[in-house]
Amino acid sequence: SVVELERDVRGWINEWNKDPKPFVWTKTADEILETLAAYCQRINDSRH
Fold first, then answer.
1. d(Cα 11, Cα 39) in Å, to the nearest integer?
2. pLDDT value of position 7
3. What is the DSSP letter of 19?
4. What superkingdom heads the lineage (predicted)?
C-alpha cells in the first residue's frame, strides 16, 4: 500500500541519514542524456 511504501522509504532515509555519504556522479550529463535518448528510441519503436 502507499502507507507501507511511505513508511519504508522514510525508514530507509532515516537509516541513510545516520551515516550519509556524498553522491558521486559516475557519468557525465551527456552520457546520461545519450542513454536516455537510446531508451526513448527503443520504447518509441516498440509499437505498444
1. 32
2. 98
3. S
4. Bacteria
The amino acid present at 16, given as its one-letter code, is: W
Q: What does the buried/exposed string (b/e) look like for 28-42 if buried means 16 or more CB atoms within 10 Å of the residue's CB?
A: eeeeeeeeeeeeeee
Q: Which residues contact 27 (CB under 8 A, 6 or more apart)?
A: 35
- What values do phi and psi take at 42, rounded to 5? -60, -45
Q: Is the pTM of this model over 0.70?
A: no
At 36, the amino acid letter reads: L
All cell numbers assigned to 11:
525508514
Mean pLDDT per 10-residue run, the chain (48 residues)? 97 96 93 95 80
